[in-house]
Amino acid sequence: MELAVGANRLPLWVKPMVFVVCLAPFAWLAYQAFAGGLGPDPAEAILASTGVWALRLLALTLFVTVLRQWLGKPWPIRLRRMLGLYTFFYASLHFLTFANFYLGWTPAILAEELLERPYITVGFLAWLLMLPLAVTSTQGWQRRLGRSWRKLHKLVYPAAVLGCIHLFWQVRSDVTEALVYCLVFALLLGWRARVWLPAKKV
Amino acid sequence: FAPATAGSDGFHTGEDQTPFTDASQYCNFYEFGTGKSDPADYAHEMSTDPWSLEVTGEVAKPGKLSLEDILGRYPLEERIYRLRCVEAWSMVIPWVGFPLASLLREFEPTSKAKYVAFETLYRPKEMRGTRSFGSTIDWPYREGLRLDEAMNPLTLMAVGMYGKTLPNQNGAPIRLVVPWKYGFKSIKSVVRIHLTDKQPATSWQDQNAREYGFYSNVNPEVDHPRWSQKYERRLPSSLFSPNRIPTTMFNGYGEQVAHLYTGMDLKKYY
């Protein structure tokens, strides 16, 4: 590929293209919502789609490090913030869809659902963990936090685990899809664990 | 068949009906996949002709009826019922069918018959959901009722809806409709009915007994362990009016069925 121009630079078109591609699921949902293409339960359709896209983008975000190490080139890191912010974007839409379209912002019911339904609690916790990551994603915050920035952003790992539990917990009878996501995240986190673990001879 | 006469009684709700396209496109029929549109996309792979329904067990005259026999034998009528899914959405659907009691009586249940077990067609070649690697349901799909529930006048064997033949995804050619219970009790594409003296095993109870009981009566006071049953979304809903309504005991059919459960702790027998 011709991507790696110089040490850490991307061709100018790459970022805008990734931006547009990541926005596409949202654009499609918005179009379907206006065109009445979401079926008799549009809130459910949006909830499912935004949830799945949040997970997919989170997996892509975590894949950046793997790709960088594989290629031995630094350029993938230039896309990580955008992918992370898109993860947060879809996770936030997911939560807002639930609160607004599903529950109509009825505070008592929202509180009850968040506290009493474990899978919803877990999903909400995942979103809460990602909130400070989104806020501190700017270069300014990165500078200000210095070394602790990297530490803080390790919160993405528990968020990913909670995201998987959130998905798995909702399965009624067929675990195939949830298993696939869990496997992907297990590989992504396992790849890192391999690095963290003290080098043991096998 | 006899179309429902206007007005609202226990057999014909006057509430707004869910449009046919919604009721036929948004279904749970896990034999064809767990997505809501899977049944509409793949149920055509099931062949429903020829079809026969076998009645066995504690009956004086066990036997088999072809679909043609059934259609010729029982006068069809229209029933407009609420359908409350255990997933907390609901619809209003005009069914065409006949009371299950008429069929059962003809086979003469013996004095030992206390329960009625039902079984859905199981044909993996035509039902891609049953071939799914991660499915935790032990096919064929099975359901059950107590005999007095089965004989209740509300309990319907449906062969059509909205004045038309049942679409495959809605349980063609013949299905059960038990409007005061969660939708999964209304077993689709029935091939076998077995009367017995023991409470039969049902698919969902086998799969997760803590979440799905044998009775599964619609009950806003007993939550599903993973979600609330206090409310339902009446479909079609739209984004800015989610159509969230309170769920009623026995799905509003208490007058006709509450007596079946007098003295029973419905929290225990959920």
Automatic annotation (TrEMBL), chain A:
Q: What does this protein do?
A: Part of the MsrPQ system that repairs oxidized periplasmic proteins containing methionine sulfoxide residues (Met-O), using respiratory chain electrons. Thus protects these proteins from oxidative-stress damage caused by reactive species of oxygen and chlorine generated by the host defense mechanisms. MsrPQ is essential for the maintenance of envelope integrity under bleach stress, rescuing a wide series of structurally unrelated periplasmic proteins from methionine oxidation.
Gene Ontology cellular component terms for the protein in this record: plasma membrane
Name the encoding gene, please.
msrQ
Q: What is the lineage of its organism?
A: Bacteria, Pseudomonadati, Pseudomonadota, Gammaproteobacteria, Cellvibrionales
Q: Which GO terms describe its molecular function?
A: electron transfer activity; FMN binding; heme binding; metal ion binding; oxidoreductase activity, acting on diphenols and related substances as donors
Domain named Ferric oxidoreductase is located at 50-164
- Where does the record locate the signal sequence feature? none
What is any one GO biological process for this UniProt entry? protein repair
> Where the protein is mainly located, per its record?
membrane
* Alphabetical list of Pfam families matching this protein: Ferric_reduct (PF01794)
Extract the InterPro entries matched here.
Fe3_Rdtase_TM_dom, MsrQ-like
Query: Any note on cofactor binding?
Result: Binds 1 heme b (iron(II)-protoporphyrin IX) group per subunit. Binds 1 FMN per subunit.
> What are the protein's UniProt keywords?
Cell membrane, Electron transport, Flavoprotein, FMN, Heme, Iron, Membrane, Metal-binding, Transmembrane, Transmembrane helix, Transport
Q: Which cofactor does it need?
A: heme b; FMN
Q: Which residues cross the membrane?
A: 12-31, 51-71, 83-105, 117-135, 155-172, 178-197
Q: State whether keyword Metal-binding applies.
A: yes
The record describes its membrane topology as: Multi-pass membrane protein
What subunit structure does UniProt give?
A: Heterodimer of a catalytic subunit (MsrP) and a heme-binding subunit (MsrQ).
Localization terms from the record: Cell membrane; Membrane
Q: Write the protein's name.
A: Protein-methionine-sulfoxide reductase heme-binding subunit MsrQ
Family per record: Belongs to the MsrQ family.
From TrEMBL, chain B:
Q: How is it modified after translation?
A: Predicted to be exported by the Tat system. The position of the signal peptide cleavage has not been experimentally proven.
Q: What is its EC number?
A: 1.8.5.-
What GO molecular functions are on record for this protein?
metal ion binding; molybdopterin cofactor binding; oxidoreductase activity, acting on a sulfur group of donors, quinone or similar compound as acceptor
| Keywords in alphabetical order | Membrane, Metal-binding, Molybdenum, Oxidoreductase, Signal, Transmembrane, Transmembrane helix
Protein name as it appears in the record: Protein-methionine-sulfoxide reductase catalytic subunit MsrP
| Protein encoded by which gene | msrP
Complete-protein stretch covered = 60 to 329 of 329
Lineage of origin: Bacteria, Pseudomonadati, Pseudomonadota, Gammaproteobacteria, Cellvibrionales
- Where does the source fall among the domains of life? Bacteria
* Free-text function comment from the UniProt entry: Part of the MsrPQ system that repairs oxidized periplasmic proteins containing methionine sulfoxide residues (Met-O), using respiratory chain electrons. Thus protects these proteins from oxidative-stress damage caused by reactive species of oxygen and chlorine generated by the host defense mechanisms. MsrPQ is essential for the maintenance of envelope integrity under bleach stress, rescuing a wide series of structurally unrelated periplasmic proteins from methionine oxidation.
| Organism name | Halioglobus japonicus
**Subunit structure, briefly?**
Heterodimer of a catalytic subunit (MsrP) and a heme-binding subunit (MsrQ).
Indicate whether Transcription regulation appears among the record's keywords: no
